[in-house]
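> forwarded from #structure-qc
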């Protein structure tokens, strides 16, 4: 997948385009992108996405912006997995926010992105003051000669698949439900870095994974599956949080103890998939108590995988 930043580069040919934040790339997004692929194939158009960085809510109200489900890298990888050929990453800043709706249509959609088919939600708003809407796009489609269509929401057991629904499920520890809304386990990517080696001192060596999520959508202790290592995937138990029993951190970190694994993996880029929440992070009165709890966590995680395997064999 080609990735363009900004709009100085023009699409190599006419596009079928969709626009959105695509945070998490959930079932609703995936259904939309499947529709995009189908239209691109039938009409010989380039399947393209326009997305924003940062999220507009992070620009306008950073203190109240929701937790990010995916970093930009993770989002682009997920979009590429859905067969998109070209993604524009729009740097959402004051200059872009000041674009009028008409300027957005003429300069960006028609000029740079060469849109011939546009698929959006009927509640999509754009342009300065959010003045642009579906009705304005309908008028523009007739003037500039592109087709416009609205998309239907995807529901799961009566619940709309949305980034907000995934965030709520993760924050509440309903990890399996979040996976159903996403169509896959929720995951975080990161590179293994050196830590303080406390896990090794406690008898449970951990891979310390540097993540770019300043405010992760989930915290606690989890049964996980790790991809990116030879012979994988590998199972383990992960702690994502601020380590209140050790040196309390300002920024959360992700630590993973892999079962029956002792290789040196510093510098490796890993994908950690969260499968089941074991407990909330908590503060312990001493390292001996912490060590005993980690042993319980490992046992609980292994029991979870045993139940999962037994269920899969039925």
């Amino acid at each position: 997948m080609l990735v363009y930043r900004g709009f100085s580069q023009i699409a190599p040919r006419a596009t079928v385009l969709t626009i959105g934040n695509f945070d998490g790339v959930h079932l609703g997004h995936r259904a939309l992108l499947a529709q995009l692929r189908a239209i691109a194939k039938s009409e010989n158009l380039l399947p393209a996405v326009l997305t924003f960085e940062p999220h507009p809510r992070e620009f306008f109200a950073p203190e109240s912006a929701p937790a990010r489900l995916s970093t930009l890298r993770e989002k682009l990888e997920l979009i590429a997995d859905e067969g998109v050929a070209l993604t524009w990453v729009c740097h959402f800043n004051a200059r872009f926010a000041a674009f009028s709706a008409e300027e957005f249509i003429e300069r960006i959609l028609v000029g740079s992105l060469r849109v011939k088919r546009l698929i959006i939600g009927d509640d999509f708003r754009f342009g300065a003051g959010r003045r642009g809407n579906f009705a304005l796009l309908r008028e523009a489609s007739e003037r500039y000669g592109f087709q416009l269509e609205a998309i239907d929401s995807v529901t799961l057991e009566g619940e709309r698949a949305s980034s907000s629904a995934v965030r709520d499920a993760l924050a509440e520890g309903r990890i399996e439900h979040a996976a159903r809304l996403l169509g896959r386990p929720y995951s975080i990517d990161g590179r293994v870095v050196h830590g303080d080696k406390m896990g090794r001192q406690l008898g449970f060596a951990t891979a310390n994974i540097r993540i770019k999520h300043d405010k992760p959508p989930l915290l606690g202790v989890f049964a996980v599956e790790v991809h990116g290592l030879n012979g994988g995937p590998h199972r383990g138990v992960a702690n994502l949080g601020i380590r209140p029993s050790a040196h309390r951190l300002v920024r959360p970190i992700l630590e993973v103890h892999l079962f029956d694994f002792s290789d040196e993996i510093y510098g490796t880029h890993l994908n950690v998939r969260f499968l089941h929440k074991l407990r909330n992070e908590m503060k312990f009165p001493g390292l001996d108590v912490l060590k005993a709890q980690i042993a319980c966590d490992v046992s609980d995680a292994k029991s979870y995988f045993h139940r999962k395997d037994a269920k899969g064999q039925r």
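QC bot note: The two ends are 39 Å apart (CA to CA). The chain has two domains: 2-156, 185-312.
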